[in-house]
Amino acid sequence: MFKGFKPVAIAMLALAAGAAGATTIGFNDLSKKSFTNSYQEDGYSLTSASANMIATGSPKALETTGFTFASVSGQAFDLNSFDLDFFDADTLTLSYTFADGTTGTTTLNDKNSDHYKFDLDDLASFSLSGTVNAGTKRKPVIDAADFLVDTIKVADYVAPTAVPEPGSLALMLAGVAVLGTVARRRRA
Fold first, then answer.
1. Which has the minimum average pLDDT: 11-15, 22-26, 126-130?
2. How far apart are CA 70 and CA 11, in angstroms?
3. Can you tell me the distance from the alpha carbon of 5 to that of 13, in angstroms, rounded to the nearest whole number?
4. DSSP for 140-181?
5. Per residue in 33-72, pLDDT tens?
6. What is the Cα–Cα distance from 152 to 80, expressed in whole angstroms?
């Protein structure tokens, strides 16, 4: 009676799920070297206007005083998490721009945490910059608010799908039942 229904139903569920492609930027393919303004990996770019970015350590991390992160194609993305070490910075500021143009800012100042999780969806870009508090004693050589970042985890943004209201769903099912009854009576 419902021959071929199961494969069609499975295909519809697979299409509806639309799993987002997760990407991890790990800097693991880098040798220790300096980048003057930009670095690209897996379709995303990191740019820094003020200072060089240095790949350092094992596993690789990016040492910088600040950067902007965006998709090379301009596609919106979700920021899931990143790992960082404050190094010389006292405070880090995460600034982000959503795909619709609205903006937001979060201050990160917990030096005891090295893994930050986020639920920021539909981003066009985000920036991370370090600051040193006034009066902070530093070694004479260190005058910048350097920090290390590693393992930036993002995912392709998938727009939420419309879910029908229960009343609409009931009306749709009633219509299908009526069509089935009419079809059955025509055969008889």
1. 11-15
2. 33
3. 12
4. TT--S--EEEEEEEEEE--PPPP---HHHHHHHHHHHHHHHH
5. 556 677 788 889 888 865 556 666 655 677 777 889 999 9
6. 8
Q: How far apart are CA 177 and CA 184, in angstroms?
A: 11
Q: What is the maximum alpha-carbon separation in the chain?
A: 95
Q: Quick one: average pLDDT of 79-98?
A: 85
pLDDT at 1: 46
Beta strands in the chain (DSSP E): 22-25, 34-35, 38-41, 44-47, 53-56, 61-64, 66-71, 77-85, 91-98, 103-108, 115-131, 147-156
Taking the C-alpha atoms of residue 84 and residue 163, their distance in angstroms, rounded to an integer, is 38
**Structural contact between residues 50 and 118, judged by C-beta atoms closer than 8 angstroms:** no
Q: Domains in the chain, start-ordered, CATH in brackets?
A: 16-156 (2.60.120)
Answer whether the bond into residue 59 is a cis peptide, omega within 30°: yes
Please tell me the total number of residues recorded for the chain in this structure. 188
Q: In the numeric block, which tokens belong to residue 30?
A: 């880098």
Cβ–Cβ < 8 Å for 98, 124: yes
Mean pLDDT of 86-109: 87
Q: What is the pLDDT of residues 98-117, one digit of tens each?
A: 999 999 999 887 777 788 88
Position 22 pLDDT exceeds 80: yes
Per-residue tokens: 14: 């697979």
Instruction: For tokens 């066009």, name the residue.
Output: 124
